[in-house]
Specification:
Strand order of the largest sheet: 3-2-1-4-5
CATH superfamily of the largest domain: ATPase, nucleotide binding domain
Largest sheet: 5 strands, mixed
Order of helices and strands: EEEHEHEHEEEHEHEHH
CATH class of the largest domain: Alpha Beta
Shape: globular
Structural class: alpha/beta
Number of domains: 2
Number of helices: 7
Number of strands: 10
Length: 226
């Protein structure tokens, strides 16, 4: 199954092309600017690298959030347009799950993805890796950092990954001390989005374009002003 995977939820945007679970091509772009001008050229690049066209894609995997509201909308509108035109299914994937899944080949057992949500909050969760599968231990959501870190089992080693570490590493040390581990891996997750999407597809859990919704966890600034 040929899968096009897209993530525009943070500055670390990425696009990946997979044949089943095999990675065929990937484009990673670290940019503080909008993904609107870079997403379509990146998609075109990964397809043309294998002499393919968008019509050859059999399923779309998309990071639907949490993350930047603008970034989520860009990815969502692009992928839903492709899915509408082609009639192909979409696998909506949490960006937090995809971040945690980057640790699947490591010795990590407990993994906590932490994404800076701005306004003094983080998007975070705690997962346990079991035989290449994720079990949610602390539910995904938008948290005040102190609240989230206080929910973690301080007696166990926890591996952290995500751009939230840049602001909250010292606070994590306060709660976890020598049990905290920090992954040096990048935050590009399109390949992981594709792998998780493939699992949904092989179990016939892909959605039609109109069923796909963003995963926000909190209101946007525009909604807060209403």
């Amino acid at each position: 199954m040929l899968i096009l995977a897209v993530d525009t939820t943070t500055w670390s945007g990425s696009v990946a092309l997979l044949k089943g679970a095999k990675l065929l091509a990937e484009v990673n772009l670290e940019s503080p600017l909008t993904h609107s001008e870079k997403l379509l050229p990146a998609i075109d690049f990964v397809l043309k690298a294998h002499a393919l066209d968008i019509k050859h894609v059999e399923g779309f995997a998309l990071a639907v959030g949490p993350g930047s509201f603008t970034g989520i909308r860009i990815g969502l509108s692009t992928v839903k347009s492709f899915a509408f035109a082609s009639g192909k299914p979409v696998a909506p994937i949490s960006s937090l799950q995809a971040l945690a899944f980057k640790m699947r080949s490591s010795a990590a057992r407990l993994v906590s993805p932490v994404v800076d949500a701005k306004k003094g909050e983080i998007y975070a969760a705690l997962f346990e890796l079991k035989a290449q599968h994720l079990e949610e231990i602390v539910v995904q959501g938008a948290y005040k950092p102190d609240l989230f870190f206080s929910l973690l089992p301080a007696h166990r080693i926890i591996h952290f990954i995500g751009n939230g570490l840049e602001s909250y590493k010292q606070k994590i040390f306060q709660y976890l001390k020598d049990k905290a581990r920090f992954s040096p891996r990048t935050y590009f997750i399109a390949y992981e989005v594709g792998l998780l999407g493939y699992e949904l597809f092989i179990h016939n859990r892909g959605l039609s374009f109109e069923e796909v919704e963003p995963l926000y966890f909190r209101k946007s600034q525009a909604e807060e002003k209403d």
